[in-house]
Amino acid sequence: MSRETLIDLLYLFSATTFILALKGLGSPKHARRGNMVAAGGMLVAVVATFFKYVDGHSLHHVWLILLAMFIGVIIAVPTARFVKMTAMPQLVAIFNGVGGGAASLVSITEFIHIKATHPATYVTLEVLLGVLIGTVSFAGSAVAFAKLQELMTGRPVTYPGQQIINGVVGLAAVTLIVTILVNSSTPLLWILLALSFVLGVIFVLPIGGADVPVLISLLNAFTGLAVAASGFTLGSNLLIVAGVLVGASGILLTRLMSKAMGRSLSNVLFSAFGSVVTASGAETREDGRSVRSGTPEDIGILLGFASRVVIIPGYGLAVAQGQHVLRELAELLEAKGLEVFYAIHPVAGRMPGHMNVLLAEANVPYEQLLEMDEANSELQTADVALVVGANDTVNPAATDDKNSPIYGMPIIHADLAENVVFLKRSMRPGFAGIENELLYNPKTTLVFGDAKDTLTKMVAAVKAN
Amino acid sequence: MHNVLLQYATVLILTAFVGTEIIAKVPSILHTPLMSGSNAIHGVILVGSMLILGGATTNLQEVLGFLAVILATLNVVGGFVVTDRMLEMFKPRAAKTKETKSDEVPQ
After folding, report:
1. pLDDT higher than 50, residue B106
2. How many domains does one find in chain B?
């Protein structure tokens, strides 16, 4: 067997481990092992690559490669180890961005490398697509990171003529690609690189807050596709398989997330949702109905008489760092013989499934985490729905009010439960900036204050009973 | 030459279908690890970056390749480590009770 065949076989092995890892994610039981298998597969691929021939000679600059890897490892390991779980979306955004950046750099270098050989048009096209998509992913992820890290406002950034400007830049990029296909000009490639960067930035600016899970999924898909494009250029099946797998997962998650918000993908990407706030945030409405507020002690007593409690956590819980106290409360209630579940909306948090990770970190067993549909059937027989730091995801306007901007979004029907308890910091509306009718429902009791404080007081109240 | 393109396109189409089938089965509680795990997988661009740096003949190519290897390593290592850390936290109920008990003994 020749050296090249052996290396290709090892690559095939790696590609298989990637598929196995994704398969492992089908259940929390096998997921961790799957991830380790993929990491092993990756290591095999990297080691095999050291023995590969490029243009008929063995790899140059082996020490330089090792040095670069060493730099990467010493930055990546501590960052990945010590970052807080609430900061996970930023971290995933940044790791995604650097992947896109690497794919773009590979494509650029490959362009310079193959230009002299007058490659076929389709080869140049693959390279240029790699540059475009990779760079958009890199720049877009950087802006998403800045938004999530609160280095800039998390709300949509809008300015007059935004759509038109974005359209013009996009069109310019396409024109540039066509021009480079014809004349293979390197200076124009640099302009394309700059333009792609600008495109990535202005594309992400108008997307904010609760729409970020969709954005992160989409950027993930972009990097996958950029890697697949590099795979075509370099003639590597491994890169094509890995890139397409990631592309497929990103696209699937993007669609799931937009569906979970009841909106089309184009609406999420282009409507600058949440930049207008219509809710008054008043405790008494114009029609005279007002909210009923209670103390943590009241709720402690209410829970004492309940037998089934469904907890509906939102991102506000994570902001208040209240996950651990919440789990303590749930365990206390369970010890008293109550049934307790957590109802997780798919877009709770800042990336797909984020809330599950935050609760898992607080040692909530995964059997207690219910998906939306399951949760809604449990809520029909629940005595108390405890809404902690969520708002839009339980807003009945999504089903009742055709004029509401969130109409059509699947929600967790907290209003099905006998009693609804809202832990809220203030009457301030949620991300969608609209009034929540449920707050004024006679079933509803509001407890104002910091979620963590309130939960701590509730724990004490339940213990006292 | 075009046969090669066809072969890559075949791999692409088949992987797209296989990938969609498998990923559709991932439950929503694991969507964050799915995202960060697939993130680590696209770090395979490290292989491409190594080939670029290993085949570099000009200073410009060396610089670009060097940067690419750093970025790709960040992607791959960071991605796998963070996914492992996340998946470690997902525990079933049985293991949990044991753990809480052993936590409480010293108190």
Report:
1. no
2. 1
Answer whether residue B55 is part of any domain. yes
How near does any CA of chain A get to the CA of B106, in Å? 19
Structural domain including B7 reads: 2-88
The answer for B 58-97 residues in CB contact with A (under 8 A) is 58, 60-62, 64-93, 96
Which positions in chain A touch B19 (Cβ < 8 Å)?
19, 22, 244-245, 247-249
A192 with A133: CB under 8 angstroms? no
Chain A closest CA to B39's CA: distance in Å? 6
Residues 6 or more apart whose CB falls under 8 angstroms from that of A316 comprise: A388, A389, A390, A391, A424, A425, A451
pLDDT value of residue B100: 45
**Residues paired with residue A447 on neighbouring β-strands, in sequence order:** A423
pLDDT classification of A131: cutoffs 50, 70, 90: very high
Model pTM score: 0.89
B44 domain-assigned: yes
Q: Which residue of A has its CA nearest to B64?
A: A105
CATH of domain A296-464: 3.40.50.1220
pLDDT surpasses 60 at B103: no
**Would you say B61 and B25 are in contact if contact means Cβ atoms under 8 Å apart?**
no
Largest CA distance in chain B: 72
**CB pairs A-B closer than 8 Å:** 362
Nearest CA in chain A to B58: A113
Q: How confident is the model at residue B96 (pLDDT cuts 50, 70, 90)?
A: very low
pLDDT, tens digit, for every residue of A411-465? Answer: 999 999 999 999 988 787 777 778 888 888 889 999 998 989 999 999 998 888 7
A383 among known catalytic residues? no
Q: What tokens were used for A60? A: 């140059």
Which among B62, B68, B87 has the least Cβ separation from residue A35? Answer: B87
Closest CA to B12 of A244, A134, A220: A244
* Interface touch B37/A38, C-beta < 8 Å: yes
pLDDT of residue B99: 46
Q: Give the largest CA-CA distance in chain A.
A: 84
What is the DSSP-derived secondary structure letter of residue A290? B
pLDDT at residue A370 in the model: 93
| Nearest CB partner across the interface for A55, out of B55, B80, B90 | B55
Is B100 within a domain?
A: no
Closest by CA to A236, choosing from B53, B79, B11, is B11
Per-residue pLDDT band at B102 (split at 50, 70, 90): very low
Nearest alpha carbon to residue A333 among A409, A284, A386, A281 = A386
What ipTM was assigned to the predicted interfaces of this complex? 0.89
In sequence order, what are the residues at sequence separation of 6 or more whose Cβ sits closer than 8 angstroms to the Cβ of residue A91?
A79, A80, A83, B36, B78, B82
**Res. A158 pLDDT band, cuts 50 70 90:** confident
Which residue among the candidates A8, A392, A400, A450 is catalytic per the annotation?
Answer: A392
**Count of residues in chain B:** 107
- Average pLDDT (A87-103) is 94
The answer to the question of residue B101 being in a domain is no
